[in-house]
Amino acid sequence: MSRAKKTTEPLPEENTDVAETKKYKYETVTEIFQARKDLKARRKELDTEEKELDKNTEYVVHRLEKEAKKGKKKPKKEQDPNKEPYGIQKSIPIPLRFFNFVSKALKNNKFSEQTQTDLTNLELTKDSQIPRNMITKVVYDYIRQNGLYQEREDKDGNIVPDKKNMAPDAAIVTLFEIKDDESLIFNNFQSYVARLVPKDPTKTAPKKAKKAKEEAPAKKASKKPVVKEPEPEEEPVPEPPAKRAKKASKKAEPEPEPEPEPEPEEVEVKKVAKKPKKSAK
What we know:
Helix content is 44%, strand content 7%. A hairpin with a 5-residue loop joins strand 3 (149-153) and strand 4. By secondary structure, the protein is mainly α. It is flat, with a radius of gyration of 57 Å.
């Protein structure tokens, strides 16, 4: 029996035109340019968001580091309640000018309610003792309550009180004995408070003694003069007789007189008669 031959049908040809078979999102140039424009805008937004995230990260890291440092700090020592106050907290006799200032201001209600109540409860007298920081606190309260500040212009052009430069009234001028050419500002306020507080002689004495010690000329230790023994003179070494005879013969010989220099010879200059010039024909 003979086998039948298999017949193969030809395959359909593949379409090589990719542009026709693949579907694209955009069909026109205008759509493509618009898509590119939108993509750039999205990238810009993403960059902005990334910068904000970087700043937020720095803030969180800084806060965590700060909290970690706080945890490492040593706890503060508890203050001894029986310890005597020192410095501006040390009690001093109330200055007379300050007592008169407080008494008059209390009658006229020139302080805030809290300060008014505190001063009334203290029942101050001329023999009372107060800490120095209380003087500063009371006078500041008086200035703030009565608005004793000079005026200045802010960035927006509005007139606002200048809390660094004060405008003292008659009561403050009398209290601090402020002169006409002096001004009361935040930086020199404590120097005026010092005018009310008497100086402590126990603190100034050592400073004066130290200053006097520095200014006094230092005493030099007396030194005995050192007497140096004279050094023995060296004896001259005698010269040999031949050398001495040679020196003596040199001294005895008279020095030769210098020969006179020869006088320069006179050179006779003969005059040459000039020839007459030939006349041009």
